[in-house]
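Annotated sample (chain length 750).
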Amino acid sequence: MRWCSNCMQPPENTAPATSMPGLILPPAADAPEPQPEQRFALMERRLEREREARRQAEALLTAKSRELYLSAERAREAEHTLALALWASGESVWEWDAATRRVSVRKVADDRLQTLADAPQVLLDEVGSVHPSDVDQARTVWLSYLRGDTVELECSLRLRFDAQWRWVRVRGRAVARSPTGRVDRIVGTLRDISAEREAEDALRLLSDAFDKAREPMLMLDRRGVLHECNRAFHDLVGIDSFGPGSHVFSLLQGDRKALEHLLGEVGEGWREELQLKRADGSLLPVELGILRVIDSAERRGMLVATVSDLSLQRSAQARAQRASLLDGLTGLANRAHFENRLKLRMAREHGAPLALLWLNLDGFRAINDSLGHAAGDAFLFETAQRLQDLAGERDELARLSGDEFALLLDGEDAAGRAPGIARQIIDTVGAPMQMGERMVSVSTSIGIALFPEDSRQADQLLQQAETAMRKAKQRGRARAEFHRGELGSEAARRLELITELRRDIEAGAMDTVLQPKVSAGGYVVGYELLMRWNNPRLGPVSPAAFIPLAEEFGLVGALGLIAMERAAAFAAHLLRLGLHTPVALNLSPRQVFDPDTEQQLVATCARHSLPHDMLEIELTESALLENIEAGRSFLRRLSEQGFKLSLDDFGTGFSSLAYLRRLPFNTIKIDRCFMDDIDTDARALRLLEGMVTLCQSLDIAVVAEGVETPAQRALLVRMGVDQMQGYHFARPMPAEDVLALATRRLPISE
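Output written by the structure step:
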């Protein structure tokens, strides 16, 4: 409604006003006209009411905003707490959505705490994410849970993470279902249990060794209550019902109070002679000894005890004599005892035929190197058990040395039985053996010598069997060879070789030659010193023949000193000519682990006033296999003193890549076998290129051995190979001849 600004009266022709709720109308015509002060006060009250309503609205908005902020903070704190809990426990969260049928994992990194939103997702339903051996189990558990057969989803399996298989424990539950009960969403946790599985495997191995030990053993508490005992103890006692929960005092007869005191108060290392009551009521003299006190959380205060039968070994002398006859690891006869038994069998009046089998495990060293000596011992123990199962009642079985065994077949049919028994041994010993998570197998080489056909002397028969075994190895391994007359002549030749070699080394009558190492441009950048032997009676003898003999008979150290002296003298001569060209010499495995080798190298350089970087030490992978850690320590000390280090025959061993990472080599020499056919075979070329690229990426210089053609040299140059060595450039030659090439450019294309 409009009002006239002059008279404050309604305009003409305006309809009378009607009253409406909430609407302030002007005063009626007969009402007194409000004064300006009244109108102003009315407007002030109205504005105040509007300001109050606005303040209330702002206060409510602020309260709601704060409530939302606190809720968001609590959510973030909860997520952070969850991420922290997962990080601390090593668990990861996984989720499956029925709509996408994808499984994803949010893994919290080990090195830093992440929120779940930032954690990387890994899709586990991709091909190859589950180990092939675990696929069927995983599928069965999964389908069983989806069908409702199980309340909770749980299983252990191997998954691929970061290009390696890891054991994990998977747990989960449905968090969303359709109206029909179908699972729509599953959330769970995933934990890496690889370490636990390894520990379990080790525990199983130890438990198996405990159970299979030949000596009776017990595990009991300090009250004398039995917790575990092995088969040997059951066999000794003859009471199958005696087991966990039984009291050892029910079997042991003696001073009970003294025994209780020993069990309760005394630690490991004590022994006590007692009487053991057997199943038939007889009393057997035994010696109870506490071998170890277990302080683990699970078995704190438990005692591991041995029970020794004193009926056969009443004295320390008898026990020592028995120990001297048996191999400590396998319980078989040792070499000395076996040789005595062989002599007794051969000395019988009727002279019954015998067949002597000498066994050697092919490739056993790789088990020790890859799985450890404990696993190697377990493997040898199991091998001995398998051999015992094949041996007859009249046969003699022994462990001669580390991985060598002997089996003596007795009887008129010994020679006829030998081939069949040998075949059984090869098949039985070669069967895969479970070692922790891995299946391991080795082959067996066997040599056979016959009595009386081959020899009537025990020592000679053993030598003939060993020689035949080595012939089996040379002819391909996993086979058996009989001794023949020509093997005897071979043994005589071997004896003559070692006799002459020893004489010439002591006289310093060994020759050395040098072969240049050449750059891509054809210039000499180094030399390799090589040993040669030209005997007046035997003529030239190949290094492949005399080097192994020197190692076997302990002559390699003296041979190495000759090489050191010749290499240092030639390098010093180069320096006097103004040439700073290093000279390489090869070290044998025995030299690597000889504590005097390092001192000998340093002293040789000092005698010739030779900087250490003028000598380059070349080692093959085989020289390091016996003890990688000791080899690494040796090489690190040489490197710190300035000697150059080179890995020879790279690519021929089973762990070359590990050496590149762990050992401080300056140079890698690629074996000559990789040069074959690189100019005609694309696969051989790609293999060589990969090896060169790998070395270059690690900033390690590369030397290619066995370069014999211009085509090979051209391909190597294109690959970026640093140095080459081979007949294409120069053959090994005496020092005076090789000096003529020192400053010449060698042929690179003719």
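Annotation: The longest helix spans residues 36-89.
Annotation: The first strand starts at residue 91 and ends at 97.
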